[in-house]
Design a protein that fits this description.
Alpha-Beta Plaits; 11 helices; alpha+beta; Aminopeptidase
Amino acid sequence: MVCRRFAFPHLVTGFAAVLATLLSAPVSRAAEFGEQTIPSNLAIAVASPARGGQLHTLMILEQIPQGRACWQEQGDKPVVVDPLLLNFDFTGSCDRRTDSNGYSLRVNGQDLAGQYRLEIAARQDDLVLFARPSRDRSLPAIEIGRTQGRHQGFLKIQLNPGWQLTRRLHQGAPLGHIYLSHDQPLAGLAQGQASSPRPTAPVSPTQTAPPPPRRPPVNDGSYFRVVVPITGGDTLQRVRAVEPEAFATTVEGQNLIQVGLFRERQRAEEVYQALVAANLPAKIINASAPAPASLSPLPTIPQGAVVVMIDPGHGGLDPGAIGIAGLQEKQINLTISQRIQQRLQAEGLTVLMTRDSDQWVDLETRAQVANQAGAALFVSIHANAISMQRPEVNGLETYYLSSGADLARSIHQRVLAQTDLADRGVRQARFYVLRHTTMPAVLVETGFVTGSVDAARFQNPAAVTQIADAIVRGILDYLGR
């Protein structure tokens, strides 16, 4: 299969050239999809707080006519929103969209989901919703709306003149996807938004851009680990049918399936209830541990740089899968990731890591860091596990969800070509970091810590380096280098 090649920003010269590329893109998608205005009283854009208010993400709430009220509004500048749907079963009354799978940018009749992503940034006494270019970070961001003030909790985003929420239509039939839409041509919007927030460089000689986003610190206190005791050979398979990120591990000497590790009790309870509904004997275990050192701020990213985000899975109080001879997944992931970072940096790429030491970083923060850094690619590194009683199961698996298909195939093919790992295929999966990142993203399972062949490979530093170098080559192939 021929892999897609990207014309990345550093190969494109000049603002006008990039705009011309966007404006001359095929219009088949625009012809296939239409849009329908949503009455302003039936849908709102909301700045949703995360990590104690240090970050904000976009949430779109939609009221179904004659349904139970989805939200209440209080105050003015800013308008504080109480999302009532968080307190009841809102099926049939409300819709909530919290990531790019549910909304995108549409300008002058074209869906620009692949070219721009929607983000919220703090700017003085405001929270600003803007569309940031995904490929050429030298282009200006486009401001869409503001909260017109700061306050704790959920805040309504007041859309700027000309912007509206519309529903995607497919051959005239309404779909669930929502657009932030404007009728003006893209060139006019981009040229008129010189004052929009930009994350890495001033937008004019007299205006200072906001500081680079900081990674939120990991707090101290209790964490909530959701586990399922292993009761048979099919336990892991049954758990993964509910939560695909589950894996076999050891907690205080007991072999368990870990389903998730959460800061918030509510999230742990939601996962627990889903498992119980599937007749699985789930448990919630408190996991207290001293907080690791705070994550350092994101470095200043050179304008126009191609940023690759490497995500070493697990870490800190979460060892990941435990395998033969006590192999810990978290250390394998970090070792491979550090080698990938070194090699890609030697090739002139800007490479960031979601963690660079043995510390726990939750899934939400991993995705947020990648999105706020404007990464062009996201590669999450893991090691697989099934059961100590299945040492014959070995091999490479590479996962993607949507836009990461070509990246996944490129990495997978290179690793198979440069190592003797068994081929367990390229697959789709709804892992959190694949659903909540806005760039092509993949998750690579580099082998089984419970497999006799793979475990021996993980204990051989030269073989681990070989895996990392093959992943590097796959990334470079995808980038056309």
